[in-house]
Amino acid sequence: MTLNxxxxxxFKNYKExxxxxxxxxxxxxxxxxxxxTNLLEAIYYLQTLKTLRQAELIQWGTPExxxxxxxxxxxxxxxYSILISNNERILKIGEKSIKRVEEFLKGSxxxxxxxxxxxxxxxxxxxxxxxxxxxxxxxxxxxxxxxKEYRRILKQRNASIRQLVNSTDKEVWDRQxxxxxxxxxxxxxxxxxxxxxxxxxxxxxxxxxxxxxxLSYDMSRDAIVEGDDVAIQGYAxxxxxxxxxxxxxxxxxxxxxxxxxxxxxxxxxxxAGSQGGQRLGIIALKLAEIELLxxxxxIPLILLDDLASELDPIRRSLILSCLRGSQHQIVLxxxxxxxxxxxxxxxxxKYYIVDGKIKTIF
Length: 362
Ligand SMILES: Nc1ncnc2c1ncn2[C@@H]1O[C@H](COP(=O)(O)OP(=O)(O)OP(=O)(O)O)[C@@H](O)[C@H]1O
Ligand SMILES: [Mg+2]
Known about the structure:
CATH class of the largest domain: Mainly Alpha
CATH topology of the largest domain: Glutathione S-transferase Yfyf (Class Pi), Chain A, domain 2
Largest sheet: 6 strands, antiparallel
Strand content: 15-25%
Shape: globular
Bound molecules: adenosine-5'-triphosphate, magnesium ion
Structural class: alpha/beta
Helix content: 40-55%
Strand order of the largest sheet: 2-1-4-5-6-7
Number of domains: 2
Order of helices and strands: EEEHEEEEHEHHHHEHHEEHHEHEEE
Oligomer: single chain
């Protein structure tokens, strides 16, 4: 899949603009606040339907916004559109309205480095779980079903705890939770097993230091011992904590409490890493993700927002050389085009963004 064109209407600071993207590298240049990140957010939203708050995507003072795009799939242009209002979102492929998110997103694999992704390192476990689930889904479409099913069961079990259901019903919900949890845990563990060595290797090759970055799946809050039977441990724990769950009115066991540990020399990267080190950590994660997808024959679209800041020129050129050999379509932003020295200028299309207007650079 290639994203050929994207048009924005009342999307953040874009009134009505369209842009044709390069099959390889599109470089968006512009001053602070011009709209570079906003454009990447539009692409990210198109490819994931994920945003922190949908209402904030619409231009201030207007009732609705839209993203229209043409993707090339197997040589054929296909039109996608999203109409966004405060409390609604209408998805279309061609003229056909699409209800199921899975259908709209099929084949739209993306790996993005956006500013808020640094919170994967600096923030709490929720963001790391979200990262993990998205990354797994990127290479395994079936995982969306697994994780959605887990969330549904979790929600219903929480409701059953609040309603003080009888012990037979509780058993049913416990069984369902554990069954679904096992599937989620298995997928997450398998993914981490594959990506962790790549992340360690990529971080070492990018870093100027001898620091070692490691990744692991952390189930310690549930005291689950890896290698032991999760179901047996789960039933025993749920029995032990039944009273506490009734008191807290919430499920206190399961993958919604697990974490992805990202450690630098054994300490959390968010605490132990320098600014540049934290950035490199996220970049190593993303590059490893790209490599895993490549092994599966999936070529994701890559978004890199303001990647160059806080990285020295050697780091920048190392990252670029990791990406250059590939077939990926890459969209990146910068305040300073001089920071990005592409050797083969033919493969790069540059645009300049001024206050929500996109201009071509000849
Ligand atoms: N909903 C909205 N409606 C209209 N304008 C908005 C909306 N949300 C954000 N903006 C405008 O978008 C601008 C920020 O754009 P953006 O974050 O894309 O800039 P940028 O080019 O990435 O800047 P930087 O180089 O600092 O990262 C804000 O200054 C704000 O004026
Ligand atoms: Mg920005």
